[in-house]
Design a protein that fits this description.
The complex is a heterodimer of chains A (95) and B (983).
Chain A: E1 2-5, E2 9-12, E3 17-21, H1 35-44, E4 52-58, E5 66-72, E6 78-83, H2 84-90
Antiparallel strand pairs in A: 1-2, 3-4, 4-5, 5-6
Chain B: E1 13-22, E2 25-31, H1 35-41, E3 48-49, E4 56-57, E5 70-73, E6 80-84, E7 94-98, H2 112-115, H3 124-128, H4 134-147, E8 162-174, H5 178-189, E9 194-197, E10 213-214, E11 217-218, H6 219-231, E12 236-239, E13 242-248, E14 252-257, E15 273-285, E16 289-291, E17 304-306, H7 307-315, E18 325-329, H8 332-343, E19 348-353, E20 366-368, E21 371-376, E22 383-387, E23 393-397, E24 400-404, E25 407-409, E26 422-424, E27 429-431, E28 440-442, H9 452-470, E29 503-505, E30 510-511, H10 512-520, H11 526-533, H12 546-557, H13 561-564, H14 578-582, E31 594-595, H15 599-604, E32 608-612, E33 615-620, H16 629-642, E34 645-648, E35 653-658, H17 662-669, E36 682-688, E37 694-704, E38 707-712, H18 717-731, E39 738-741, E40 746-752, H19 756-761, E41 778-783, E42 787-792, E43 801-807, H20 811-822, E44 828-829, H21 832-842, H22 874-877, H23 880-883, E45 888-895, E46 907-909, E47 922-930, E48 935-943, E49 952-957, E50 962-969
Parallel strand pairs in B: 1-7, 8-9, 8-15, 9-12, 15-28, 17-24, 18-19, 18-24, 19-20, 31-33, 34-44
Antiparallel strand pairs in B: 1-2, 3-4, 5-6, 5-7, 10-11, 13-14, 14-15, 16-25, 21-22, 22-23, 26-27, 29-30, 32-33, 34-40, 35-38, 35-39, 36-37, 37-38, 40-43, 41-42, 42-43, 45-48, 45-50, 46-49, 47-48, 49-50
Helix pairs in contact in B: 5-6, 5-9, 7-8, 10-11, 10-12, 16-21
The chains are: A alpha+beta (95), B alpha+beta (983).
Chain lengths: 95, 983
């Protein structure tokens, strides 16, 4: 596969490490009420779509960027590649 | 007589005679021959034995689809089993041996299987080896294993080198027949970066095997001229002897180039083969078509070939496989073979045409509406029996029979990405359908465009379309004049006559009867048919047989072929040697090797090294007179505990963490707190995964208000850094924190033992007295009169200990300085074994305890998990299942009888309990011999362990057959109060 890195252009997937569902970015607050149940869902309940899937890839053999890659699980078509940092900020994460 | 079947013409170099041998017998052939064409020229039709029934077999084809003519090539370490003689380029001195026969190819004892064939029909394994169960391991499996397989491996290391390479292009053209050459000309002239690959050593595809012309010149000459023209274009790369084995995502193709297979010995400095990873923006599949046989009784005798292959042997290799020859066809292409052979003066005894009517072929006995119903000839064809339109049977002499059941487009690669072939009634064949690899189209025979004109035209048109897609303008190719014969075929798949066997898949010995049996036993879907009969599961992947099997099943089920199913293919297109997949990644080069800064010094001392991940670390450093590793390790441990020891600990991961939020960041990634750590101090840190299990541990030092240095275990240096980057970028993107791995930047040495301070004082420029530099202090210092260094007063061994780091380029000098400074204390340098002994003596956890299934509580470190802050893993580490009483706890273990040694991995069982999983109480994680205590000691996870100190248990290892009675102790065997650390 080829991942079109937003900063570095097309790179071979061999340079990357796959991590998992980009939903992991939405980490709950561990000090909130009922955190155990929230964390259980966060960590163990994932969608397994036959189609577009937003997932985290790490450019380990490159610039160490974490990326959110939108990949079709049926065709491996990659329709979007974003910096995870930008996605996280967009989702309201900060400090 | 030498080469008695050689006729005039052909594309062989008669000026070059090559000597070779087959089963020890000497033969000659010419440059341009394949092993099969040279053997056929010499009258050798019998080349192998079939897999299951050991039937005598000769080549069916003249190409890579060959199911039968598999031989062992070369000898000694270069021996290469299951090599297809039909694509083996002849070279001087070639040695080939037949396989899957004993004692000889002509007399094979296991041919008895052929007589027993009723017992070996489809599903035979499933039915026969069912019971009794006990027979499987002792009798059936060894029996099957002995009989299975074709060729044998040399069992010696392959002496040749294999390489991997990367290529990029605008347009990849797969196959260099008329379609591929027309596409390459179009794209090459447009200036596009073109790669054209062909599995053959001579590019041109079928043009080399035909007698018709292109632009009034022989087609083969046009091909040669076109290849020469392409070779002149700097933007075109020709890859002959190269098979595209598969399409992968996003325009990546894998190719195997056989660089030196056609040479007796791989030249020095050259690889035998190269695995290319091809990045193509667009690709055109011009892989041509493969002829398929018709199934009839005894259709597998040597001398029975595909008609187009028979024609190729005559036209390209100047070989008449047998005289007289007969032809059996259901289409006009079979007639072309007859015409070509007659024109070459080969006697054609009859043409048996399944179609009734139409013009008769002159020059032979063209029998229309007829079928071949049987053949004769034990080791090679001698005659055929036919049944004519009136139902009359008669025999016709034939030394060779060309069979044509029509042609299947080589759509294999187009079906790799869920591409589904579509049925074409006019061709009676599947053609590439929608889907399939992105950016790949098909042209020529691979797309069902069977005439030469159609191949040239579609090749040029697909190239134009691909270039237009890429925004490259190209001129229309001035198409050369070529034949444009329409395909005329009346499908006829198998001959329904007689009780004998009609072969479909010759390599796996699958017959029409087997398909009928599969149908009868309700294995009717294509997937079931394949698995039940093994149809298409041999090394040729059913290139000639699959379509036939499908057609027979369609007829039995009364459905059409497309209703019955399609045949699709997986990579690789043809078999690939394991060596080329490994490339240079073998032996010492399997992966990069990382050497520690003290490696050279340690090697000079004769150190024994051990692989730790990619690192090579000194395991122990033997001294003169030491004959057993324990002598060296015991000495290293005792000297360290009694005086001083030095160890290279560079391999531990080091991560510099800087920024105004560095402390806050560490509080979130460590279970314990770091923001409160004073500058100039070090703290032990426990890092959890989000599921609450321990991920890693190490020490982190605060060098400044906004600057920390984290250490990780050697094994987790990379994963921890990855995790920290994940936390920084994905979870808290606005924290002011920066990370950089400095593992390779610093050479770090542990100096441990009661004399450690005295030793270091000789090198360190600053005051490191206990008052100035207490336990858990850290500082940036200088050594040897000014070299910048970092000093940490931390201890893994439990002794007064330091870790000192200098820039890596001074690592070699530093180890020598340390050793020199240590001489007056008789200090030792210790390796990883002594390191392990001392950490177990001290009760520190390491890799064996950090096993991914253990939480802080299991390790006795539960109190380190702060619940006042939200750190990774905090919440789930408090889950009920992980905090319940009675769970596994880290304990120390010693044998009741000190003379007994323990075995790591042994399980705890109560004294009277049976040795079963139901009574399992935990296990020993780490076992060492403690020279300080004089007996074996161990760490282990024991159920409710902390409450069981002093209890006696058994440790049982059923695999090793050991059982030792032990006493449970504290995991801190040495200096549990930590007085030595603070000395």
């Amino acid at each position: 596969m080829i991942i079109n890195h937003p900063l570095l252009g097309p790179r071979d997937a061999q340079e990357f490490v796959y991590f998992g569902d980009a939903a992991l970015i939405a980490r709950p607050d561990g000090l909130s009420e009922g955190a155990e149940a929230t964390f259980h869902d966060y960590l163990y309940l994932r969608d397994n779509p036959a189609g577009d899937h937003r997932e985290l890839w790490y450019h380990e053999q490159g610039d160490r960027s974490w990326l959110v890659v939108t990949r079709n699980t049926l065709t491996h078509d990659i329709t979007a590649v974003e910096l995870a940092r930008d996605v996280a900020r967009h989702m309201g994460r900060g400090r | 007589m030498s080469q008695m079947n050689r006729i005039a013409g052909g594309q062989i170099d008669r000026g070059q005679t090559l000597r070779f041998s087959f089963d020890g017998q000497a033969f000659t052939g010419h440059a341009g021959d394949t092993l099969a064409s040279a053997l056929l020229a010499n009258g050798v039709r019998l080349m192998g034995r079939s897999f299951k029934y050991h039937r005598p077999r000769g080549p069916l084809s003249a190409g890579s689809e060959e199911p039968n003519a598999l031989v062992e090539l070369r000898s000694g370490a270069r021996r290469e089993p299951n090599t297809r003689a039909t694509v083996t380029e002849l070279f001087a001195g070639l040695e080939a041996t037949s396989q899957n026969r004993w004692p000889s190819l002509k007399f094979d004892a296991l041919a008895i299987n052929d007589r027993l064939s009723p017992f070996f029909a489809a599903g035979f394994y499933y039915k026969t080896f069912m019971w009794p169960a006990a027979f499987w391991e002792k009798l059936y499996e060894p029996l099957i294993r002995r009989a299975a397989g074709l060729g044998t491996l040399s069992r010696e290391p392959d002496p040749d080198a294999y390489d991997k390479g990367f290529l990029h292009c605008d347009l990849l053209i797969i196959g260099a027949g008329p379609a591929g050459l027309a596409a390459a000309l179009t794209a090459g002239r447009a200036g596009a970066r073109v790669i054209i690959a062909d599995e053959d050593f001579r590019m041109g595809g079928r043009l080399n095997a035909e007698t018709f012309g292109i632009n009034d010149a022989p087609a083969a000459d046009w091909a040669a001229q076109t290849v020469a023209d392409l070779a002149q274009m700097p933007n075109v790369r020709l890859l002959p002897r190269t098979t595209i084995i598969g399409a992968f995502d996003h325009g990546i193709y894998a190719a195997v180039e056989r660089v030196s297979d056609h040479l007796a010995i791989t030249p020095a400095g050259k690889p035998r083969q190269i695995l290319w990873r091809l990045y193509a923006r667009r690709a055109i599949l011009c892989a041509g078509a493969t002829e398929r046989p018709i199934a009839f009784e005894n259709n597998d005798r040597p001398g029975i070939l595909l008609a187009g292959s028979l024609r190729a042997y005559a036209n390209r290799w100047a070989v008449a496989v047998g005289t007289p020859t007969a032809i059996f066809t259901n289409n006009d292409d079979g007639l072309r073979t007859a015409r070509d052979l007659i024109a070459k003066g080969v006697a054609v005894s009859a043409v048996i045409d399944t179609r009734a009517g139409g013009p008769k072929l002159p020059g032979t006995d063209h029998i229309q509406g007829a079928e071949v119903i049987d053949t004769a000839g034990r080791l090679g064809l001698t005659q055929i029996t036919i049944r004519d339109a009136q139902g009359r049977t008669r025999t016709i002499p034939a030394q060779a029979l060309g069979v044509s059941g029509g042609w299947n487009p080589n759509l294999n690669i187009s079906s790799h990405h869920r591409g589904r072939p579509v049925w074409n009634d006019a061709l009676a064949a599947f053609t590439p359908g929608p889907g399939g690899p992105q950016g790949l189209t098909a042209a020529g025979a691979a797309a069902g465009a069977f005439s030469t004109h159609a191949a040239l035209a579609t090749g040029a048109a697909e190239a134009l379309a691909a270039l237009a897609d890429l925004g490259i303008s190209a001129a229309q190719l001035d198409l050369p004049k070529a034949e444009d014969t329409p395909t005329a075929i009346t499908p006829h798949w198998y001959v329904a006559a007689g009780k004998g066997r009609a072969w479909i898949d010759q390599q796996n010995d699958v017959t029409v009867k087997d398909v009928k049996l599969a149908h009868q036993e309700n294995f009717r879907s294509v997937e079931h048919l394949k698995r039940y009969t093994t149809l298409g599961m041999a090394t040729d992947q059913g290139k000639t047989g699959n379509m036939l099997g499908l057609a027979v099943m369609a007829e039995l089920t009364g459905k059409t072929i497309p209703e019955t199913g399609t045949t699709i293919y997986r990579p690789p297109y043809t078999p690939v040697a394991m060596g080329v997949l490994a490339g240079r990644s073998q032996g010492a080069d399997f992966r990069p090797r990382r050497l520690t800064p003290s490696h050279r010094w340690a090697a000079e001392q004769g150190a024994v090294f051990v692989e730790v991940g990619m690192w090579l670390r000194a395991q122990w450093l033997p001294r003169a007179g030491e004959t057993h590793w324990r002598q060296s390790v015991d000495r290293e441990v005792l000297v360290t505990r009694n005086s001083a020891g030095i160890c290279d600990v560079t391999t531990l991961g080091k991560i510099d963490i800087q920024g105004t939020d560095a402390g806050l960041f560490l509080d979130r990634v460590y279970a314990n707190t770091f923001s409160t750590l004073a500058v100039g101090k070090v703290r032990y840190g426990l890092m959890l995964r989000e599921d609450g299990m321990v991920m890693d541990d190490g020490t982190t030092a605060r060098l400044g208000p906004n600057e920390y240095v984290m250490t990780t275990t050697t094994a987790n240096a990379v994963p921890v850094f990855r995790h920290l980057e994940y936390c920084r970028q994905c979870l808290w993107p606005d924290l002011d924190v920066q990370l950089i791995s400095t593992t390779e930047a610093w050479a770090q040495f542990s100096v441990a033992g009661p004399n450690a301070r005295k030793l270091l004082e000789k090198l360190v420029d600053q005051d490191i007295s206990d008052a100035a530099f207490p336990y858990m202090a850290c500082a940036e210092i200088t050594v040897c009169g000014g070299l910048r260094a970092r000093l940490f007063r931390i201890s893994f061994s439990g002794e007064l200990a330091y870790e000192i780091a200098v820039p890596t380029r001074y690592g070699d000098a530093m180890i020598r300085e340390l050793v020199a400074a240590g001489q007056e204390f008789d200090a030792v340098v210790y390796g990883t074994e002594a390191l392990g002994v001392m950490r177990v003596e001290k009760g520190h956890v390491a890799g064996n305890e950090l096993n991914g299934q253990s939480a802080a509580l299991n390790m006795g470190l539960g109190k380190m998990v702060s619940r006042k802050k939200d750190a990774i893993g905090m919440v789930l580490s408090q889950r009920e299942g992980m905090t319940r009483d009675g769970g596994l706890r880290l304990v120390g273990v010693k044998p009741v009888d000190p003379a007994k040694s323990l075995t790591a991995g042994s399980h705890f069982l109560a004294l009277g309990a049976p040795s079963t999983a139901a009574h399992d109480d935990g296990w020993l994680t780490s076992v060492v011999f403690s020279p300080n205590l004089g007996h074996s000691i161990a760490l282990g996870y024991l159920k409710n362990g902390t409450a069981r100190l002093g209890e006696r248990l058994r440790t049982v290892n059923l695999l090793a057959g050991t059982e030792v009675e032990v006493e449970i102790t504290s995991p801190h065997f040495i200096d549990p109060e930590g007085a030595r650390l603070r000395a």
